[in-house]
Structure formats: C-alpha cells, structure tokens
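Dear H.,

Thanks for agreeing to be a second pair of eyes. The structure we're designing against is below in token form, covering all 510 positions.
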C-alpha cells in the first residue's frame, strides 16, 4: 500500500512556464556520504555533478520554470552513467526577504513532486511562505518526468488491478502469485537500467545535489507521508546541511515491512470506523443506520458478493479488488466521504459500480482514456529496494493473516496478501529498517494526525522520539497529513517554523 498526500492535491498537473537562467553554486563540498570511499577519478566525477548549472526554460504555466538536473545513476560509480531528473520552481513572490528554496514532496513513493508543486503547493501553500521561498520540486528518480520506471502496459495494468487479492483456494493463490511475478518481470524487462537505482537513499542524495546547484547552503523541505521518510533520510545523511524540515504524516523508519503493513491496516480500519460513524448518522447511509460495526459487516458482505459476481461500471466491471481500492482511496481525505457514500449507494442499491471505479482509478492514476501514470510501478520499485519483503511465500501470508484480519475485518485479508508484492522482485533490497537520529541537524518538525489512515499517528510519535532534534506537532482529526487541511492552529505553527525557524512547544496539539 502506498502513502501519499490526499488525492485532491495530486491531481493532474497544470502545464508550466518560466525563464532561461543559470543557477549558482553554494560552495559546499560534494556528497560526503558517497565520496569517502571513492577513488580520485570518481570523486572528480561527483564534483562535476555538484558544479553543474541549471538552464531554466519555459514549461507551460505562467510563473513556473523547468530544468533538468543530471545525477549519477550509481553514486558508488559516478563516472559510469547518469540519470536526468526533472525540476520545476516558482520564484518567491515577496514581500519580505527571500529565505531560500523550499523543496516539496507529496509522498508515494511514486507521487510526482512537480505535479504537486504546480497543481497545489506553489499556488495554495500559505501566502507568507510562498512570498519568501522559491517553491521547488524534483520528481524523484524513476518517477513521472524523471526517467520513469515502466512495467505493465495499460491493458495489462487493467487486468492486474482486477486480480483477486483475497484468494479463497490454492488455485486463486497461484493466480495471485503469477500476477505478482508477471508484474515484477515486466518491470525488469522494461526498466532494467534504473531499477537497481531508485532507492530513497539515492533520491535523498539527489536532493542534496539539487540543493547545491540551486545555491542553498541548507535544505528547507516539506515532505508529506513517504516524503517524511525521504526527508528524514536526507537529515540522516547530511545533518549539517539540514535546514527547516517539515515531516507531515510521518513514517517510522525503524519498522520492518510486515509491521508497517500491519500498522497501516489498522490505520485504514480506524479511518473506516470514523467514516462509518459519520455515515450511519445519515438516513440514506448505504451501510445502514444501526452502528459502525453493522456498517463494517455490510461492507464486508458486499465485497464478498463482488468477489463472486462483479457488477457493471460503465463499459467495465467492478469486482472486489477495485471496489476495495475505491473505498481505501476515499479514506485519505474526509472530504471524499460524501463521494464515497454516493458511490456505495449506487453500487449497493442500483448495481452501478462506476462511482467506486472512479475512486479506484484516481488511486491508480488511471485516466479516462485508459492510460496509467507510473505511480504504482515506482511505488513497488522504491519499496522493494528500501526494505526486505514483508512476506516471501503464501505460507507466510496465511500464517500472518489472522493478525491482519484482527487489525481490520474489512481490509485485513487483502492487505496481508499485498505484502507479497516484493517477494518476486528482480532486485535485492539495499535498505533495512533502522532508527534515524540525525544527530547534529537543526530542529526538525514532525507532524502527526490522530486518525490518519495511511501513516498511523504512532509513527509520528516514534519518529519524533528517534530524531535527536525532533519536535512533535499533533492534529487531532481525520484524514492523511495535516498542513493546509483547514486547521489554523497547525498552519500557524508550521508557518512560524518555516519563516522563523522556531518549532512549537514539543507535544503541541491542535
């Protein structure tokens, strides 16, 4: 399961525009984490990347400009090939003195930072922040405009998203395993060059390269969801270059994949209960008006019906897998609850699955013409490098499934089997679960939402505790992430940190 900023904020990007100028150097030395073990020729190659100048150009939307950053494909062998990374920015608007660049990332992994910048962050972040920062985004390696990981074609992806992820017997288990294998093999076939080099560590090194090329001595950053792992990884690698980092909807880097999946399963159950409590108060709730527990049972029964017999959804069909994804997609933002209520009404009462299918398509970034973005490909590619697989065999899934069903009677079974995705990945993981302390970094702001479905609140508590200079800011509410979601208390605290470098009182709640 991926994590990302709410769906409304990762909508299709606007086209961009800008000026042709060159960046300047901030004067710090190249990547110390990659440089120490390199020979002199490799160190010289790395220095060349740090000394490059960006050429900005028009890219379609007034106020924005775009460029291409060159980075080593392999930081351990910087002279052996490069990868091109797409960058966009909107310059500080004033008034007030420019603080520097503010990089943003919406999460995923696999979410396009440039889409997030151009469609939301550079337009809707609080005006005082946009006034004093150049708003900047780089699509991480393997994502969207930055040499995207490619796997299944569109028709194959349609079939993959309909795969039964709650197998009832050995035959259906074999079909699911075959689907995971086909997915992995297609990624290797179409993306073999970059597949070993899309880890979070490498993406963090790219951010330091961009920081230098932009002329900033410190990295200032707002990361949402998975973006918090990217940000905390940067702080771990470069504590002395870390500026003001907002880590909103925090991930816990100390957890192995199985525990992360289990925690996230419980998080979606918490979010669904909040939705159900809201729904059953309405006389037209499609899940009944008795209790959240009854709503849960009714939804589970509906999923079972779809497993046996999909229903029409325009010129397509809605089965259990797509319906489940549609419900999960609406859990990211309580603003989507009315849409989900209408979609469930149409599906359960009118035998029309098009509403749930629309929600599912938004999650998978499937366009109306049937074309997919690469978010699900990049998501798997990064996750499978960052951590060893949650499970390596169907037997392991079956053993763990009772814990997942306990965590969520509605979603547990499917999310348990989703933990098998990386079992057949062609590249071995390069990362492992570990605590991140980032000793020596400037004060870091960790933000957690109490009923966050995708990044459970306890992850924010844990990350704030791990970071040597971490401060926890809590939003008591629903939905995924907190900044810019309507809480003046949260926004004021984050704005003060970004503009003045002052963290709120540790443990502040809004």
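And this is the sequence the design step returned. I haven't edited it by hand at all.
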């Amino acid at each position: 399961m991926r994590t990302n900023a709410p769906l409304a904020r990762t909508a299709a990007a606007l086209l961009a525009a800008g000026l042709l100028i060159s960046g300047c150097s901030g004067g710090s030395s190249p990547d110390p984490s990659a440089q120490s073990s390199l020979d002199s020729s490799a160190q010289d190659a790395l220095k060349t990347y740090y000394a490059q100048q960006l050429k900005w150009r028009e890219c379609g939307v007034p106020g924005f400009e775009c460029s291409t950053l060159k980075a080593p494909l392999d930081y351990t062998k910087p002279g052996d090939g490069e990868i091109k990374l797409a960058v966009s920015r909107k310059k500080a608007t004033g008034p007030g003195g420019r603080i520097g660049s503010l990089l943003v990332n919406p999460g995923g992994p696999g979410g396009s930072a440039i889409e997030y910048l151009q469609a939301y962050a550079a337009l809707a972040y609080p005006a005082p922040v946009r006034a004093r920062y150049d708003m900047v985004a780089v699509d991480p390696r393997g994502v969207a405009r930055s040499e995207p990981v490619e796997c299944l074609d569109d028709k194959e992806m349609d079939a993959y998203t309909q795969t039964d992820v709650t197998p009832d017997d050995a035959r259906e288990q074999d079909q699911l395993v075959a689907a995971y294998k086909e997915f992995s093999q297609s990624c290797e076939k179409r993306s073999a060059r970059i597949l070993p080099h899309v880890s979070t560590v490498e993406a963090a090194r790219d951010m330091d390269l961009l920081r230098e090329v932009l002329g900033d001595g410190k990295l200032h950053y707002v990361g949402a969801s998975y973006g918090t792992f990217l940000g905390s990884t940067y702080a771990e690698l470069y504590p002395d270059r870390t500026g003001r980092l907002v880590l909103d909807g925090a991930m816990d880097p100390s957890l192995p994949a199985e525990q992360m999946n289990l925690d996230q399963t419980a998080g979606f159950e918490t979010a669904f209960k909040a939705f159900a409590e809201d729904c059953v108060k309405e006389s037209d709730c499609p899940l009944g008006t008795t209790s959240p527990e009854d709503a849960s049972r009714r939804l589970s029964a509906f999923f079972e019906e779809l497993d046996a017999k999909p229903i029409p959804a325009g010129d397509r069909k809605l089965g259990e897998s797509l319906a489940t994804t549609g419900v999960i997609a609406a859990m990211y933002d309580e603003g989507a609850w009315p849409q989900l209520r209408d979609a469930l009404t149409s599906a359960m009462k009118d035998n029309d699955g098009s509403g749930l299918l629309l929600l599912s398509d938004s999650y998978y970034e499937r366009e109306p013409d049937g074309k997919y973005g690469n978010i699900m490909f990049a998501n798997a590619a990064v996750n499978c490098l960052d951590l060893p697989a949650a499970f390596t065999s169907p037997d392991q899934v079956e053993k763990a499934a009772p814990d997942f069903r306990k965590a969520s009677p509605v979603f547990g079974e499917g999310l348990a089997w989703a933990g098998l995705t990386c079992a057949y990945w062609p590249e071995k993981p390069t990362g492992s679960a570990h605590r991140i302390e980032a000793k020596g970094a400037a004060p870091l702001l960790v933000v957690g939402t109490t009923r966050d479905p995708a990044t459970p609140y306890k992850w924010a508590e844990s990350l704030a505790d791990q970071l040597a200079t971490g401060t926890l800011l809590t939003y008591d509410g629903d939905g995924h992430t907190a900044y810019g979601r309507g809480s003046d208390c949260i926004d004021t605290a984050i704005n003060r940190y970004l503009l003045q470098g002052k963290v709120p009182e540790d443990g502040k709640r809004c």
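Two observations from my side: The CA atoms of residues 3 and 108 lie 5 Å apart. Confidence is low (pLDDT under 50) at residues 5-27.

Warmly,
E.
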